[in-house]
Sequence to fold (281 residues):
Amino acid sequence: MRIALVGAGGKMGTRLRNNLLRHPAEYSLAFCEKGEAGVGRLREQGLAVTPPEQALAGADAAILAVPDAGLRAVSAQLVPLMKPRSCVVMLDPAAAAAGEVTLRDDLTFVVCHPCHPPLFGEQPTPEARRDFFGGVAARQDIVIALLQGTEGWFAEAETLCRRMFAPVEKVHRITVEQMAILEPAMAEVVAASAAVLMREALEEAVQAGVPREAATAFMLGHAQIPLAIAFGAISSPFSDAARIAIRYGKRHVIQPDWRKVFKRENVLEAIREMLHPEGTP
Fold:
């Protein structure tokens, strides 16, 4: 299979490139990159940079490893260059869910995203336990959706995505809309905001006079326990005092109507802000 990897010199492109280079018998790879730093990284590895017009014209599939905010412009430029009945693989649901991806009726479009290694999952080696992102040594699941196209191409794309994010345990097939509920709504709007809130709470403790080393040790240890309880990694319940503190925190820290971020219109609003921080076009 001839693959054009667009954004091959970026952070995500580098991860995918290194994994796909392990399968020379299955994939013939062409690398597209316009950033000077990315081009330099490719050349340091002894890899040629192919103009997108050339790479896409001969590609069976294109992987768009580009930032979410750039996918609208990139797809508008590159999708018309692809040969009929080929496949486009995107790595994030945002632009697809917002209707900002240029489509063609004769192409298959697949969206995939890594789940990342689970917090309480077992990993085989110390290297894997430090691979928080995944795709290097740690096992992880991925989610994948067929935006448009054929089931035959979807099966091929699933195999490709397994290899892109290897080692992969399980592939969860969902819809693009469901993927947008997972990210940004669940994983970023809620979970990432909570993580930043925890760090800011640590800084408040330091400002109140607690030594930073003690505050950090206490926060990281006490963050692990409630997560383990809440997600069933251990059988211990919250203590009676902790339950009272949680109720107090919900009243004074968490907005009572926070679940509204999962409504479709709010998911799309968050996506629009992510894709167009300067304002919706």
Summary: The CA atoms of residues 128 and 138 lie 4 Å apart. The chain has a mean pLDDT of 96. Residues 2-174 form a domain with the Rossmann fold fold (CATH 3.40.50.720). The longest strand covers residues 140-148.
